[in-house]
Amino acid sequence: MNEPIPRRLEVENLTWTELPNKTGKTMNKHSGSWLEFIERLKTVGTFPAKKQCPWLKLATFGDKRSEKGSLRHNANVVTVTGLEADYDGEVMSMATAKEQLERHGIRAALYPSPSSTPEKPRWRAVCPLSRPHAPEQRQRFMGWLNGALGGVLAGESFTLSQGYFFGATPTNHYHVLVTFDDPDDGTCIDQLDNLDEIAISKSHGGSSGKDGRALSPPSAVGAPVTDQTVEDLRSALQSMSADDRSLWVRMGMALKPLGDVGRDLWLEWSTKSSKFDSEKDPSTWESFRPTSTGYQAVFAEAQRSGWINPARNPRGAHIADVGDFECLDEGLSPSDPADPARVDADSLATLDAAYPLPFRGIMTDVVRSALAVSNKPQPYLCTLSALIGMAASCSGIYSLPSGMRLNLYGCGVAGTGEGKDQPRSIATTICKASGGSLIGKPASGPGLEDCLVSHTGTLIALDEIAHFFAAINSGKAPPHLIELAGTLLQLFSASRNNYHTRIRAATKGAIPSRVIRNPVVSLLGFATPEKLGEAVGISNIEDGLLGRFVFAFGQPGVTPRRVNQSWALPDSAANAADAVRQAVSLEMLLGDKEEVDCISIQIDPAAEIRLDELMVDFEQQRQNAKSAFAMALLARSCEKCERVAGVLAVWDSPHVPMITLEHVAWAAQLVLASDAALLRFSGEYMHGGQTQANAQRVLNLIKRAVAGDFKPQKRHEQVMIRKGIAPYSMVMRASKLAKRDFDDAVAHLVDLAEVELVTFQSQHPNGREEKTRGLILRR
Question: Which has more confidence, 625 or 153?
Answer without folding.
Answer: 153
